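Re: [ENG-882] Designed sequences occasionally contain unexpected residues at chain ends

Forwarding the minimal case from QA. Structure tokens:
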């Protein structure tokens, strides 16, 4: 039975609602989850508040030891965590392995970072004066994560929050509570001090209560832009600190001198990895008109080779959509495509989908007009929309013509050219001739309606710190 983890103890939820945790590959019920109440949140926040003074007072190298213990336990349980993610989220094994490996690396990165990070320092800012800077843990923080990437989106928040000296209340998506509860199990096994980490298994009601809670100093949220907007409005009332990692409609630009076989690989990975359930998915393909026919021909062949299901082999396998509601949303967009008369590159009926599970065939639409909802809105599924461009200026204009600005990919035969294009794109993270690799020491976050703030790297740590300044007259 899945339970909350509060003040170092497993506790049953006290809410009145429940839901079935579903294996999206088979549609079998894994377990029934009782949802938390706002009372459970209050208990978790109180535990975090009581634990804060002692945890804040620990030295950075002591916190680093705890982070490494978590990382080691993640490594020890890697195969089990992959299996749990596969069952609860539906990820193919090789995709789930990427998440676990990234989580391990993230805890290691922040352990290393805080051992050499300047939490306090003095410098002369004006003749006759000296200024002392001190970075303090922000306090009790609330972390809210989505259902598309168990472990890793959570680790991106949990690791730097603990490294900074914050105590936390963590609310993962209730849809993948089975997988995310394993993080709490690991933290319990390593013996982290009571109250430092608290897990709440609940829905939007408890998330809203967390955002409004007077004892939570900061909320870090990953999810949809509409929900992020609501959080921003609610947090403004108390000037609560927030970090929002939201949606995207990212472009992938293929220039005339790109290696086309490599481009096909990058396009497929960018839009069909995790069945397209990625905020960073490069769902808008912009290709130079001189190579469009050849590229699309190769892309069609590669896409038609995609298979589906539960294979443990490292082949081109697409898993299911994680929940039935999301599959319906994707199918609604496909209905819009039919109404708009969009031209499909591949015949979806040729794919052999499993008899059970929330599977959706990949779709590629060509010559999609810029006014189409499929071109402008985040779908969160395996749907790629294509346009051509004639020169750099047109490519950049089309790429930037979006309310989002999370990510972008550039494929070019010249690195210098690629870097020049990157400087003109409005995106928080840009890849040039690379798959969507996001090292723990980099930075993650977007422009415009893709969110506020940055995760990972030193910015991820700074997100959970406040700076005080003391100036002395010498």
């Amino acid at each position: 039975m899945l339970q909350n983890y509060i003040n170092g103890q497993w506790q049953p939820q006290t809410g009145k609602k429940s839901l079935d945790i579903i294996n999206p590959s088979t549609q079998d019920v894994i377990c029934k989850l009782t949802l938390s109440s706002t009372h459970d949140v209050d208990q978790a926040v109180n535990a975090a508040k009581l634990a804060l003074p002692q945890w804040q007072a620990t030295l950075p190298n002591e916190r680093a030891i705890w982070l490494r213990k978590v990382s080691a336990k993640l490594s020890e349980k890697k195969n089990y965590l992959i299996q749990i993610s596969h069952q609860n989220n539906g990820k193919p094994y090789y995709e789930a392995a990427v998440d676990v490996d990234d989580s391990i690396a993230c805890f290691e990165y922040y352990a290393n970072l805080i051992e050499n990070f300047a939490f306090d320092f003095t410098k002369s800012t004006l003749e006759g004066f000296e200024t002392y800077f001190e970075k303090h843990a922000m306090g009790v923080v609330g972390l809210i994560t989505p259902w598309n990437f168990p472990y890793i989106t959570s680790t991106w928040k949990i690791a730097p929050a603990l490294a900074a000296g914050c105590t936390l209340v963590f609310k993962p998506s209730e849809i993948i509570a089975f997988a995310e509860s394993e993080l709490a199990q690991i933290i319990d096994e390593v013996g982290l001090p009571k109250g430092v980490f608290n897990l709440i298994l609940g829905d939007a009601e408890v998330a809203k209560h967390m955002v409004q809670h007077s004892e939570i100093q900061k909320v870090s949220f990953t999810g949809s832009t509409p929900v992020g907007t609501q959080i921003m409005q609610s947090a403004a009332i108390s000037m609560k600190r927030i970090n929002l990692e939201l949606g995207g409609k990212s472009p992938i630009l293929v220039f005339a001198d790109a290696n086309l076989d490599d481009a096909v690989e990058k396009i497929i990975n960018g839009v069909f990895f995790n069945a397209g359930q990625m905020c960073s998915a490069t769902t808008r393909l912009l290709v130079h008109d001189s190579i469009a026919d050849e590229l699309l021909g190769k892309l069609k062949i590669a896409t038609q080779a995609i298979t589906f299901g539960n294979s443990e082999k490292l082949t081109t396998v697409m898993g299911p959509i994680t929940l039935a509601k999301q599959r319906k949303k994707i199918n609604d967009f496909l209905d819009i495509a039919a109404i708009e008369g969009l031209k499909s590159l591949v015949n979806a009926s040729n794919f052999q989908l499993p008899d059970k599970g929330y599977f959706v065939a990949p779709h590629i639409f060509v010559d999609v007009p810029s006014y189409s909802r499929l071109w402008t809105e985040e779908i969160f599924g395996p749907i790629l929309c294509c346009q051509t461009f004639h020169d750099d200026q047109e490519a950049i204009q089309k790429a930037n013509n979006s309310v989002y600005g999370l990510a972008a990919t550039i494929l070019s035969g010249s690195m210098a050219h690629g870097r020049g294009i990157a400087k003109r794109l409005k995106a928080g993270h840009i890849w040039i001739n690379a798959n969507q690799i996001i090292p723990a020491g980099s930075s993650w976050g977007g422009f415009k309606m893709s969110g506020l703030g940055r995760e990972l790297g030193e910015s991820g740590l700074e997100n959970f710190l406040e700076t005080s300044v003391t100036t002395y007259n010498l």
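QA comment: On inspection the terminal residues look reasonable. The mean pLDDT is 96. Proposing we downgrade this to a documentation issue.
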